[in-house]
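Notes from hallway chat w/ T.B., transcribed later so I don't forget. T.B. wanted the structure written out for a chain they're using in a teaching module, and asked if we could keep both sequence and structure tokens in one place. Agreed to drop them here.
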Amino acid sequence: MLSSPSVTSSATTGATPFAWIDDASLLPSRRLSVSISTSFWHGTDLSEVDVPVVGVSLGVTDRVQGLRA
């Protein structure tokens, strides 16, 4: 009979820096959307700041959307 291996693991704490939520909706044709924002994240040993965060979307047709981020 084989013996089971002993496994130890150390608990680590951390944070998720960013969660992206998207509902997959499209812009109507010939519509433009522009967004400007900032992002700040701080973890145990690291931090990050993103300025500016710019997003541009263009509704090309009813089923096609161009995205520039």
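Follow-up for T.B.: The two ends are 58 Å apart (CA to CA). Might be a good example for the class.
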